[in-house]
Amino acid sequence: MTVARKIAKNTLFIFTSGLISKAISVAFIVYAVRILGPSDFGIYTLITTVVFFFSFFIDLGITPMAIRELARDREKIEHLFNHILTLRLSLALLLYPALILAVNLLGYDDRIKALIYLMAVAFILTAFSGSFKILYFSMEKMQVPSVIEVLVSFISSSAGILILYLGYGLTGLVLVVLTGNALGALISGIWVRRFVMKYSFSFNRVIWTDLLRQALPFGMIAFLNGINRHISIILLSKLSGPFPRDIAIGYYSPAQKMASSLIPLVRSLRVASLPTISGNIDKKKVVQKILEKTTQFSLICVSIPLLIAALFFSHDLMTFAFGSAFSESSPAFRILGVAFAIQAFNTPAISTLSATKDIYKFVPWATLSILITIVFCIVLIPVMSFKGVAIAVLIGNLFRAMSVQLLLRKIMGIRIFIPARYMKGFVILLFISLLSFVINSFDVHFLYRIFTVLLVYILCVLILYRTQIGEFRSLLKAGI
Fold first, then answer.
1. Signed CA dihedral, 271, 458, 314, 379: sign only
2. Which of 425, 405, 390, 225 is nearest to 308 (CA)?
3. Residue ranges of the domains in the chain?
4. What are phi and psi of 272, to 5 degrees?
5. pLDDT tens-digit series, residues 335-377
6. 307 pLDDT exceeds 90?
7. Is 357 or 315 the better-scoring residue by pLDDT?
8. CA–CA dist 278, 68 (Å, integer)
9. Fewer CB within a 10 Å sphere, N or C end of the chain?
């Protein structure tokens, strides 16, 4: 199978599963926000944010590094995977006491601490089951994890909605996550051992040291990306502003989740292309072609829809999805939509850097962008609360995008932001922006307006990108 066919086939599975899973997740979030309200949903967001940092230290960048290395050397895949599985589990168990200590130092109340402890156990189980996803991706067998992702998302979201409907609240939600992760770990462990690989637990200090050394640049970047998404919640929980802290988080989180709802689609493309880029990293023309295609995909499928939704339909979307109580969230969504549109456009470039041995050179730039975000958060939260956080995230994302483009050109001699290559996308953006501005002047229901804009946008894409769509369909037919 050719490089293009591999990426087309893998992208189809991961993109489709990511789209379905995200739609299910958004439905759950919408229901949860309406039932819990700004205060309790703010607490739920805080819990998941704290546990995110724990999950980062469980992985430490091992996932992308493992996909890269396993894809490069298929003959040693079982031997290396055994060490990766054992290393991830060991990190999870060793770091759990550190989480307990950190949560106590942060001074949260007993209820929040107990829920964080339970949620962290769920993430330890994910360290086990998630290792098998690494295995499938490195083998470029995207079908199985894609189907599992959809099933898990549907079951967990349905259970979460049922728990909320029955009135069990936050505690019930956390227990649902814990139970679901336990079942997922059990089923995936049995399935992989029986049908894919007779894995075992292995320890070798030299191999583990080498794995951690290679994973460290990925880990640093993943940590900085995570801070970029989650440090705002921690800062809102500790800094006083015009809104009470839990309410500020409750208003900010729905806007953030809505603005980032399409980002997993770009990440799915990143996962699909990473093994192929890694295997062809010495072929500059191949890498550049993959990068251009994936960036076009990000622009059309994520960045432009996000910009239109945020700039022209922010108030309508927030109140329609979460209720009139969340109209305060619409300015934050408008700003965050632009921020995440920039991030989506920039993601393929970061993915390309991740496939090189020079990924560590991006760490200082990513660190600086996070520091910029944190400084602006500290300055703006006391004055503007969660709206100031949205501005800080936008500034940080702009700086990161510029630094990635410069670094990619310096390391690989590749320029990605060449306006002429994306002229069709920019023309569509301008036309749809004008259409949205005009249609919003009519006194018609929000759903009619956004449906009309969406329909016209799809038609524009089908007309202007008909050649690329035809090529993609041909690749899928040839590759499946």
1. positive
2. 425
3. 3-417
4. -65, -35
5. 999 999 998 888 888 777 766 666 677 778 878 888 899 999 9
6. yes
7. 315
8. 6
9. C
| Three-state secondary structure call for residue 324 | helix
Task: Please check whether residue 424 is in contact with residue 456, taking contact to mean a CB–CB distance below 8 angstroms.
Answer: no
Tokens 């059990």: give the residue. Answer: 186
Q: What pLDDT does residue 38 have?
A: 77
The reported pLDDT for the residue numbered 378 is 93
Q: Where does residue 219 rank: exposed (0-12), middle (13-18), buried (19+ CB within 10 A)?
A: buried
- How many other C-beta atoms are found inside a 10 Å radius of the C-beta of residue 205? 7
Phi, psi angle pair for 163, to nearest 5°: -60, -45
Mean pLDDT for all residues in the chain: 81
Q: Cα–Cα distance between 224 and 356 in angstroms, integer?
A: 18
For helices 466-479 and 446-464, give the axis angle rounded to 10 degrees: 80
Q: What pLDDT was estimated at residue 409? A: 80
| Angle subtended by helix axes 3-59 and 205-238, to nearest 10 | 70
- Structure pTM? 0.70
Task: Find all residues with CB under 8 Å of 211, minimum gap 6, and list them.
Answer: 62, 65, 66, 83, 84, 87
pLDDT tens figures, 92-116: 888 899 889 988 888 888 888 899 9
Handedness of CA 279, 285, 289, 291 (dihedral sign): positive
Tokens linked to 251 = 């208003």
User: Does the structure show a pLDDT above 60 at 7?
Assistant: no
Residue whose tokens read 């964080």: 116
CA triple 172-178-180, angle to 5 deg:
100
**Amino acid at residue number 426:** F
Given pLDDT bands bounded at 50, 70 and 90, which one contains residue 478? very low
| Confidence class for position 480, pLDDT limits 50, 70, 90 | very low
Give the per-residue pLDDT at 355: 65
Q: How far out from the chain centre does Cα 351 lie?
A: 13
> Cα(226)–Cα(49) distance, rounded to whole angstroms?
9
pLDDT in tens, 220-244: 777 777 776 778 888 888 888 898 8
How many CA atoms are closer than 13 Å to the CA of 250, on its beta-carbon side?
22
Q: At 28, which helix (H) or strand (E)?
A: helix 3-59
- Residue 453 in contact with residue 436, Cβ under 8 Å? yes
Count of residues making up the chain: 480
Residue 474 has pLDDT above 90, yes or no: no
Cβ within 8 Å of residue 35, ≥6 positions away: 164, 165
Q: Which two tokens stand for residue 390?
A: 């949205």
Is residue 424 within 8 Å of 467, Cβ to Cβ?
no
Residue type for 300, please? I
Query: DSSP assignment, residue 239?
Result: S
Cβ atoms 251, 328 nearer than 8 A: yes
